[in-house]
Amino acid sequence: MSADPGGGSVLAAWERFVQGEDHIPGVRPLVAISWHRCREQYRVDPHLTEAPVALPEFGHAPEHDVVFAELGFRAASVANEVGNLGCVVTVTDAAGRILAEWGDQATLARAGGCNLAPWFCWSECAVGTNGMGTALEAHGPVPIRGAEHWCRAFHDWFSAGIAVRDVVTTEPIAVLNICCWRSELPASAESWLAKAVTMTQHPLRRRARDSGAELVAAYTQARGRSGAALAALDTGGKVVIADDMASVLLGVPACTPAVDPTLRWNPGLPELIAAARYAAGQAAHNPDWVGSTQIFAHLADEPTSISFRPVFSSGHLIGNLVSFGASDGAQLPQAEGSAHPSVQPRRLIAIRGNRMVLLRLPEVSFAESMGNDVWLSTEQGRLRAASLSLDKLDNELADSGFLRVHRRYVVNLSRVREIERGLKGDLVLIMDGRVNDRVPVSRRNAPAVRRALDI
């Protein structure tokens, strides 16, 4: 079987792209974006012939061991079914290091020739586009076939990977991958991968809900001891609960617990989120750590002092209590918790066919999440964003005049032309442009929208 699913067109596009061209018709957008990272950001040699040795093991949360064990069980079971097809099944950690593999012995021996084996690194920054590494950069099953691989030496492989992601931080924990030598993957491969990840994430979701309830309990106890404005944030920087004053500064509903991780509020303050993640990293290594910094909160003309105090459950960090107006503990490094607005991206990357479109921020009216994709409403029409996460886009654009108004929408406030009020007080934003798009505002985001638009 040809290792080029495009009948030669993908290989021809690859040859042009590695020489510096950008027009690559016939290449899937996911692959084109990955190639762009490999060439421009990671600078991976496309003529690399084998994967490098992985770095030493890094720390991970205790519940992640459950993920590795569950993925190992599922990988071993499917390997028995696909072994006679010449397939190899691997489990990889968040750094792209292969932890274990199963499959046909002849194919395993062939895989060893390019270091497709335990203790070698298959992240994109190490070997470019591949099922395991690209799955760490994307959401959902990621098939990479033949010449779609960045390194020429891997063009005879067909693979598909999917990442298991932390339900709180959305950071990858592990990757489950299946690959074959010079033959297409079984038709059921992608659905099997998706089902395996769904089953693996069930205990993570239960644990996250339990942790949310424990954060609310810790917040309630702390409220009885302090008069300072207080909020509880999870390890991803999202708000689980905030009192009246903290809710105004964070732009979220007051005294409303959000135990389920899918319902927690994004404060739209990149500095706060960055500081919360830094605090989580420090507390994970030192349970007694307490730190402080300054941020620009909503409706504040001057930076506000905040302090972080970690909350643990059974020795595992589950979040932080954030006090406003306090400056206890160590000062966070300027790079992690600067009191000055961070530099935001001046361009957004969108996809039109097989081309990447670079958009200036004023060209974007709003972003909408639909399924696994994010779509941008622009002056050039409706374009699919390179970013696969509306949360990530929201964080990047929060200090650039964009606001989250609904779980599915982030709008450019400067492009709001009219505001329509419904009979029950619901708000709908009428965006400027040729089609006057209508964007709904959710009830919980309505207060932040009214403050931002001064209505």
Automatic annotation (TrEMBL):
Entry annotated with the keyword Glycoprotein: no
Any Pfam family hit: LytTR
Domain of life of the native organism: Bacteria
SMART domains the UniProt entry points to: LytTR
GO MF annotation terms: DNA binding
TM stretches of this protein: none
Ranges for domain HTH LytTR-type: 348-455
Keyword vocabulary terms for this entry: DNA-binding
PANTHER family: STAGE 0 SPORULATION PROTEIN A HOMOLOG, TRANSCRIPTIONAL REGULATOR-RELATED
Stated name of the protein: LytTR family transcriptional regulator DNA-binding domain-containing protein
